[in-house]
Amino acid sequence: MQSFEYANPATVQEAVGLLSAKWGEADVLAGGTDLISLMKDHLHTPKRVVNIKNIKELEGIQKTAAGIRIGALVTMDELAKNADVKASAKSLSDAAAAIPSPQIRHMGTVGGDLCQRPRCWYYRQGFGLLAMKDGKSLVPDGANQYHAIFGSGPAYFVSASSLGPALIALGAKIKLVSAKGPREVAAASFFVSPANETSREIALHPDEILTEILIPPATVKSATYEVRQKEALDWPLATASVTLTMRGNTVASAKVVLGHVAAKPWDSAEAAKAITGKAITADTAEAAGKAAVASASPLSQNAYKVTLARVAVKRALLEAAKQKA
Amino acid sequence: MANTPDYSWPPMADRKIIGKSFKRLDGQAKASGRAKYTSDLKMKDMLYAAYVLCPHGHARVTSIDTSAAEKVKGVQAVHVIAPAGTEVQWHGKEIAAVAATTEEIAREAIRMVKVDYEVMPHFVNEQDLGKAGSRGKAAGEKVTGDPEKAFQEAEAVSDGVYGIPVITHSCLEPHGCVIQWQGDQVMAWPSTQFVTGWANTLAPNLKVPAANIKVKMDYIGGGFGSKFSPGAWAEVGAILSQKAGGRPVKIYLDRVAEQTIAGNRPSAFGKIKIAGKKDGTITAWQSDTWASGGFAGGGQPPLPYVYNNIPNTRLNHTSISVNAGPSQAWRAPNNQQASFLTCSAIEDFAAKAGCDPMDVFNKNAGYTPRAEQYQYQLAKAAELSEWKKLWKPRDQRTGTMRRGLGIGVNAWAGNGHGCTARLTINSDGSVVLEMGTQDLGTGTRTIMTQVAAETLGLQMGQVKLVIGDNSLPPGGSSGGSTTVGGVSAATRKAGVNALGKLYEAAAPALGVQPEELEAVDGQIRVKSNHAKNMTWVAACKKIGPAGKISETGVNETRNPMGLFSGGAAGVQVADVSVDIETGLVKINRFVAVQDCGLVINPKLAESQVIGAIIMGISTALYEERIMDNATGRMMNPDLEFYKLAGIKDIGDIVVHMDIREVNDKRGVIGLGEPPAIGICAAVGNAVANAIGKRVPYMPMTPMHVLNALEGRNA
Ligand SMILES: Cc1cc2nc3c(=O)[nH]c(=O)nc-3n(C[C@H](O)[C@H](O)[C@H](O)COP(=O)(O)OP(=O)(O)OC[C@H]3O[C@@H](n4cnc5c(N)ncnc54)[C@H](O)[C@@H]3O)c2cc1C
C-alpha cells in the first residue's frame, strides 16, 4: 500500500473540502471493505484518505412524508434489519440481507456498496477497468464466465452492487454533495457503463460524497431474487429486483432491474412491458423472464447466465406477487 | 530377555484407552488461538520476505534491476532468483525476493524491482485434447484380454466424457517458514509434514551439514500432501537471512503465490466406454484419458479404479504440459481422479443397461481386491442413505427440484511409515514420550498418548508427549496415510520395551519373575494374583541409580508384527437436490462407510472422515483453477473466485466407521486419505441421477450443469 495522508473530518462540509477535482488524488473511506483491498493491490493509490465514519449526519434511517431517507454510513446489517425498509422496500431489505458474511454486513456501508469498484478479475489483476490490450478487450475471448451478458462492450465487467438494482426498481434518488453544493440523481442514472478506461462506472464526481438515498413513498410490491452458488462469501451470478404497482390483481406498472449481468444494473423495459396489464402467474412471469433476456448477447463462456437472468426475473415476480403490499 | 517381547495389541474387550473417543489434546489450544502456528511467529529482529512473481504465462527475463528496491529504507536483503536470460514457464514463478523490517516495506520494495520480460506463447487449458498438439505426450497403449470382442458381444455399452479440473490445496496456513542462517548454523521453524527429514532435504542446497540445521514446529495449518519438502522458499529465506547478517527471516507465500506455485491436484479427463450385459455385469473397459499437473504434464490415474480386474481393457493416456505451476500430492494423489472417472462411467453404464447402479457396483464386486468388504459396505451405505426408498431411475424425476443419489468408492494402502519413539519412565513415575513427528491436525498427538497410556496402564494425563523437533528420535513423513500406523506401532514397542525394564526393577519386591507382571489401572501387578501389586509410583521408585528408564521402539515398514497393515476400503453415497432451472446443486446428505482396521480413537477417525467430506464437497461443487487463454494467467489466485465451501454448503454428514472384529484384527490402518477419494464421483453421479444427464465436467457449478442441460459443450 502506498503511503497516504489520513484525514478525519467531522462534517460533510469539512470532508468535501478535502477531496479533489481529479480521480486518484483523494479517496473516501467508509467501512473500508473494498477500499483497503484496492489500496493493497495498488489499484487505488490515493495521496489522501478521507475517513467519513465520524460524520454523524451520514448516519441513520428515517421515514418521513417524503419517503425513507437512508444515510450513506448505514451498514448493510442496519439496512437489512430496519422495519420501515422491510415494510415498504422488501426488495432492498432482502438484497442487503443476502450480502454475504456478518463481517461485511457490519462493516460495509450503503454508500460504499454503491461506490464499490467492479470485482472483474482482469480489473483486479491490473489490466484496467476495460481490460484493453492493443485496442481490444481481453474479456470476450478470455475467462468470462462471470462477465456481462448485456451491453456489448466496451465494458464487460458486471456492476458489483446488489443494492443498485433494487434502488433503481424502487425509483430511489441519490444525493451527492460537493463543496459547490448538493445535487440529486436518480439511482437509474447513478450507474453508467464506462466508455473509456479513464471514466468511472458511477456518476459520482471525484470531489463529491454520496450522503444519502431517498426512497419515494409508494404502495408497491417489491422483491429481489438472487442466484448465488454458495451460501457463504460469494457473489451473485445473476439477480433481479422488481417493483410492482398493482391494480387489483393486475400489474398497473412495473420496474424490472437485473443485477450482475452488465456493467450497470440492467433496467429491462421489455420485461416490465411484458408483465404490465397482466396478473402474475407462472406463465406471465416466465414470459417476462424471456422478454428480459431477449436482447442478451452472452460471451464465449457465459451463456448459462442468460438462463439464470431469465429465471431470476421470473422468480422475483412470483415472489413479489405473494406479498400483501 | 532374548525373545522378542509381545507387542501385539490388547484384545478389543480388554482395552481401556485405545478405542475410546478422547477429545483431541490440542483442541482447546487451537480453538482458543493459544496454539501458535509458524505463520504466527514473531521474533526479535525478524525480517519479512516478499516475492516478485512472474506476471506472464510464459516469458523470458530480459533484464532485472534491483537497485531501487535496495535503497528502500528498511530493506535488509534482496535476492535475484531468475536472472536475465531465464525462461519462466508459468504465472507466479518466483523472480526475486526481498527481506525488510516490516511486511509492508517488503511489499513496497518488490514493486521497485524492475523486471523486463520477453513474453512468449503460452498454452494453459488442457480440457480440449484436440488443442494440445505438441504439448501432449502419449503413453503406450495397454491392453488386457480381448476388448474388441467384448465390445462386439456387449448387450449394453456406455460412452461418456468426464473431466475433473486442477484444484489447489488452499491450506489455511500458506507455505513458508521462519529461518535463520548464521555462519554454518541454521535454525528453522517450518510448516511441514516432515519435521525429521526437512533439514536433510535443505542441507545440500545450502551446503550446510544437515547436523547443523535445527528444525522446530508445533502446529501446522494444513498440508494435504503439499508440505513435505522445504520448498524453494526455505532456501530463499535462508539466503536472505544470511545476506541480512543472520537475522531470522519469515518467508511465507501470499495467497496469490500460494494458489499459483505451492502445488495443486492435477486434472484428469477421459473418454470412457464400458461394455456389459443387460443384467449389469461389466465385461470390458476402454479409456482414452489425458491430464495435466502443470509444465511437467500429468500421469495416468490407476484405471479402472477398485474394479481393477475387469477382464478386457484398453487404456490410452496423454500427458499434457501446460504453462502453470507444478502439482503436489493432494490427499490421495491420482485416486480421486481415478475414482471419479471409474464410478462416473459405471453409473452411466448402469443407466444404459437399465440397472440400479447400487446393484451394478455390487454385482461386479468380484473385480475388486476385497469383494466381501465392498459388498458389506455397499449394503451399509444403501441402508444409511435410504437408497431403496429414495433412488429412482434417471428419467423418473419431475419438477424443478430434482433429487438424486450417487455412489463413489475408495481404496487406499495406508500401512505404517518407519519411525522411532522414545519412552522415558522417571523414578518419580512421570512419563515422557518423544518423536520427531508432527500432528497435521489429524490427531497424532492424541493417538500417540493413547497408545502409550494403554500400554503402561496409565491415564491420558500421565503421559507427556514431545514432538515437532528434529533432534528427537526420527519420525516419518506424514503422507500416504502412513502416520497412524507408524507412530502407534513405534509407541507400542517403546512402551512395551520400557515396561519390560520397569518389571525387572519391580519384580524382586513382589518376589516374582518380571514376565509374571502386567501394568493395569496404575498398578504393576502379578498376572495370576492381582492382590500382589504395587502402585505405578512405588514401582518407579525401584528404578536404579540412573533415575530413569529410556527405551525406544522402532517401527519398520516391512515388519508390521500385526500392529498395522494396509488396505482401507470405503463406499460413499451422495444425496443431492438440483434446481434444474438454475443448475444449483445442494447436498442433502452425504453418507460415508469406511474401514480402517483397528481404530484407536473413533471420534478422531470420524472427524477425519467428516473433514475429508467437507473438503471433497467443496471440490465437487466449487473448486477449480481458472486459467485464462488470453493472458496465460490463473484468474482466481485468491479465495474469492477460487471458491471454498462454507458451513451451510455442506449438508448433513453421516459417517459409519466399519469397526468390526474382522477389521480390527488387521491392525491400525491410515485414514487421512481414503475418505477424500470418492466424493466427486458420488456427487457427480447423484447429479446425473437427479437430472437424467451426465454433467461431464467437475465442479458441479450452475455453468456446468446448465451447459449439460441445455446441450452446450463448453
Ligand atoms: C467476498 C465478498 C462478497 C461480497 N458480496 C457482495 C454482494 O453480494 N453484493 C454486494 O452488493 N456487495 C458485496 N460485497 C461488497 C461489499 O458489500 C462492499 O465491499 C461494501 O458494501 C463496501 O462498503 P464499505 O463501506 O466498506 O466501502 P469502502 O471500502 O470504504 O469504500 C468502497 C468505495 O466506495 C467509496 N465510497 C464509500 N463511501 C462513499 C461515500 N459515502 N461517498 C463517496 N464514495 C464513497 C470509496 O472511496 C471506495 O472507492 C462483497 C464483498 C466481499 C469481500
Walk me through this protein's architecture:
The complex is a heterodimer of chains A (325) and B (714). Among the domains of chain A are: 59-115 and 158-215, Uridine Diphospho-n-acetylenolpyruvylglucosamine Reductase, domain 3; 221-321, 2-Layer Sandwich (Enolase-like, domain 1), CATH 3.30.390.50. Chain A is 30% helix and 23% strand. Chain A has 13 helices and 14 strands. Chain A has helices spanning 12-17, 35-40, 76-81, 83-88, 90-98, 102-107, 110-115, 121-124, 164-169, 187-190, 269-275, 282-293, 304-322; strands at 5-7, 26-29, 48-51, 61-64, 67-71, 132-133, 136-137, 173-178, 181-186, 209-215, 221-228, 236-247, 250-259, 266-267. In chain A, the strands form 4 sheets. In chain A, strands 4-5-10-8-9 form a 5-stranded antiparallel beta sheet. In chain A, strands 11-12-13-14 form a 4-stranded antiparallel beta sheet. Chain A has a 3-stranded parallel beta sheet with strand order 1-3-2, with no helix packed on it. In chain A, strand 12 and strand 13 (250-259) form a beta hairpin. The longest helix of chain A has 19 residues, at 304-322. The model of chain A has no long low-confidence stretch (mean pLDDT 97). In chain B, the strands form 7 sheets. Chain B has a 7-stranded mixed beta sheet, with helices on both faces. A 5-stranded mixed beta sheet of chain B has the order 7-17-16-15-8, sandwiched between helices. In chain B, strands 18-26-27-28 form a 4-stranded mixed beta sheet, sandwiched between helices. Chain A binds chain B through residues 1-2, 42, 119, 121-122, 125, 127, 133, 138, 141-143, 145-146, 227, 229-234, 237, 301-304, 307-308, 311, and chain B through 104, 107-108, 111, 581-584, 621-622, 626-631, 633, 635-636, 639-641, 643, 645-649, 701-703, 706-707, 710, 712, 714. The complex binds flavin-adenine dinucleotide.
